[in-house]
Each structure stands twice: as structure tokens, then as C-alpha cells.
Amino acid sequence: MAITLAAARKQWQEENKNIKKTVKMILAVSGMDQHKLGEKLGICERTLRNRMQSPGEFRRCEEQAIRYLAEVYGIKNE
Fold it and tell me: pLDDT for 34-43, tens place per residue?
């Protein structure tokens, strides 16, 4: 079954919202600041802020690290 372009865009937007929400939750639960979280993701604080504004820019390895940290801190992804 083929997916329409509109459906794909909607799915990407939803995934972008989820990754951004997860990063914010990690920051809140862990007590880390953006600098420390950036270090854990292997990026600088400035890059983390830019990627938060455009979540589609997160690289796969960064997304995997975010998912891992969410699991470590007990954050459930919806």
C-alpha cells in the first residue's frame, strides 16, 4: 500500500514533535543543561539548540542517543 505525500509529511511532523518533546523531557528529568546534554549526544550546545528548532536535522546516531537517554531516565515515548 502506497503512502501519500501528505500522509508522509504529517508523519514526519509528528516524529519531529516527538523528538523535540523527548529532548525537553530529558532536560527536565535529568537536571542536565543543554551544554551537558549536547556533550552526551556528541554535539555542542549551539548545535543542540539549532536542531531543537529544526528536529528533522537530528542525525540518526543522535536520535538513537536521545532514545537511549529517554529509556535511562524512564521517559515513555508516545
Answer: 999 999 999 9
Q: pTM (2 decimals)?
A: 0.87
Listed residue (36, 58, 54) closest to 45, CA to CA: 36
Per-residue CA distances from 49 to 15, 19, 22, 27 (Å)? 18, 13, 14, 12
Q: How many helices (H) and strands (E) does the chain have?
A: 4, 0
User: What SS3 state is found at 15?
Assistant: helix
Residues 6+ apart with CB under 8 A from 78: 18
Residue 2 has what pLDDT?
A: 83
